[in-house]
Amino acid sequence: MPFDPNTTKPEIDFPGDTPPAELLIEDITEGEGRAAEAGDTVKAHYVGVAWSTGEEFDASWNRGAPLDFQVGVGQVIQGWDQGIVGMKPGGRRKLTIPPELGYGARGAGGAIGPNETLIFVVDLVSTAKPGAGSAFGLR
């Protein structure tokens, strides 16, 4: 099942207990087609929530456009680089990311505090192999 353009922004429930020490990957919907691999260029919609507050700090849905990035090359936090691998287009995945795979002790501006565990629900819109990026205007 490819990404459904009628898919709506997910809600994230506040966990309220002790955050995990490792990256947690939970498939909500599996998707279909070729799974994303390191080096692929992907488009993904997401919602991000801080574990400590349950407050949303960012969402591509609010901007009306998915995020484009290359997996595994450091364009996004490590938790995303690791957590997107294996996703298929049309899939929805929850990533619970410990601080060392997120923004660490520095945090990110006023939105994400130091040593914050992050929760993302990610919808994979599409994936393309390196060199096949012309669909995204990339080479």
From TrEMBL:
<dbReference type="InterPro" id="IPR001179">
    <property type="entry name" value="PPIase_FKBP_dom"/>
</dbReference>
<feature type="domain" description="PPIase FKBP-type">
    <location>
        <begin position="39"/>
        <end position="128"/>
    </location>
</feature>
<dbReference type="InterPro" id="IPR046357">
    <property type="entry name" value="PPIase_dom_sf"/>
</dbReference>
<dbReference type="Pfam" id="PF00254">
    <property type="entry name" value="FKBP_C"/>
</dbReference>
<comment type="similarity">
    <text>Belongs to the FKBP-type PPIase family.</text>
</comment>
<keyword id="KW-0413">Isomerase</keyword>
<keyword id="KW-0697">Rotamase</keyword>
<protein>
    <recommendedName>
        <fullName>Peptidyl-prolyl cis-trans isomerase</fullName>
        <ecNumber>5.2.1.8</ecNumber>
    </recommendedName>
</protein>
<dbReference type="GO" id="GO:0003755">
    <property type="term" value="F:peptidyl-prolyl cis-trans isomerase activity"/>
</dbReference>
